[in-house]
Design brief:
alpha+beta, six-stranded mixed β-sheet
């Protein structure tokens, strides 16, 4: 099962040079389990950096299938004020650790350093936590 995800990671990196694709699995008591999956394609990153507004909206939603999990997404706004996908991740649960991991990846990929001149939008439940996480990393 997870071999397919590892193959996907390899194929994405080979066919989308410069992209960040990361699959993390964990082993607990000899059982291999899915942990995290992150994607930020180079073309999306370069376009966001060059042409989109310095605004990112982040949110998570449930994945309702036999595998379960959470989809974490980061979207921007282009010059036409339309949504622009930037990066996404699938995690086992939406918690502080998974958001911290996602935000660290996003900050690194988008070269946001201390976040100066950049706006982060989120729902009100996470906004104070994410603000602290984002600007303290």
């Amino acid at each position: 099962m997870f071999t397919s995800l590892s193959n996907f990671e390899i194929c994405c990196c080979r066919t989308n040079l410069g992209s960040t694709v990361e699959v993390e699995i964990i082993t607990i008591d000899g059982i291999v389990k899915f942990d995290k999956f992150y994607v930020c394609f180079d073309a999306l990153r370069k376009t966001w950096l060059a042409y989109c507004r310095p605004i990112i909206g982040i949110d998570g939603c449930f994945l309702k299938n036999n595998m379960k999990g959470q989809l974490l997404a980061a979207v921007g706004r282009n010059a036409n004020n339309q949504f622009y996908p930037v990066a996404w991740a699938v995690v086992e649960t939406e918690n502080i650790d998974s958001w911290l991991w996602f935000i660290k990846k996003l900050k690194s990929d988008l070269k946001l350093q201390d976040g100066d001149g950049f706006t982060l939008i989120s729902d009100r439940q996470k906004v104070s936590l994410l603000y602290l996480m984002f600007f303290s990393l």
